[in-house]
Design a protein that fits this description.
- This protein has 228 residues and is α+β, with helices and mostly antiparallel strands.
- The chain has two domains: 110 residues, Glutaredoxin (3-Layer(aba) Sandwich); 103 residues, Glutathione S-transferase Yfyf (Class Pi), Chain A, domain 2, CATH 1.20.1050.10.
- The chain is built from nine helices and four strands.
- The chain has a four-stranded mixed sheet with strand order 2-1-3-4, covered by helices on one side.
- Helix 1 packs across helix 6.
- It is globular and about 55 Å long.
- The relative contact order is 0.15.
- The mean pLDDT is 96.
- The structure holds glutathione (GSH).
- Glutathione (GSH) binds next to helix 1, helix 3 and helix 4.
Length: 228
Amino acid sequence: MIELHSWPTPNGLKVSIFLEEAGLEHQVFPVNIGTGDQFQPDFLAISPNNRIPAIVDRDPPGGGEPISVFESGAILFYLARKTGQFVPQDPRGTMEVLEWLFWQVGGLGPMAGQNHHFNIYAPEKIPYAIDRYTNETARLYGVLDRRLAGRDYVAGDYSIADMAIYPWIVPHENQKQNLADFPNVQRWFETMKSRPAVIRAYETKETLYPPRKELTDAEKAVLFGGKK
Ligand SMILES: N[C@@H](CCC(=O)N[C@@H](CS)C(=O)NCC(=O)O)C(=O)O
């Protein structure tokens, strides 16, 4: 049994996509990042960076004590190794997937996250920051578009790289990106969106997590207030 400690944000939903694709038995433990659950000692014990997602594998390969994993890219790789799915076995294939997985966790995620922050949440609209992150997101969409030219998926067969990237393309409108400008991304996005496991993963937003509304000022203070 896998425990998923998470919240239905792009980084959390990547792991839900994997669990649905692989049909792995799991249980979701909501970590409400708006009310500060990510700072609770029990959560910090498995996720010391106070960010979702984290998992605990109560039945790890080879037996023994449960294994906990934080950082969404590490979680996806762990689950791929555990199940033997969604990462090829050969070294070239493995590295291609890891390159694009790291591209997402080190590039698209942080840049699109800051884009969202300055376009949507920042109380003060700072044109320099908005332009900087909107342009950088557009550059990354362009990189992805070129990569997807003539390819169905990002790294050969469908892989954890696609699962990591997709949830960050879902909020493209909030990121001020027009998918029509990136036709290969648009085609891939439609393919991803119609996968039954992806649909099921997104349904968990409603079925496994408490209802959410716009962030309140108190929630913004928790999320953006720099609490240690
Ligand atoms: N590099 C981390 C980023 C995780 C992350 O930023 N998670 C956000 C939600 S998408 C979070 O937990 N935010 C809580 C906070 O900022 O306090 C990963 O890929 O897992």
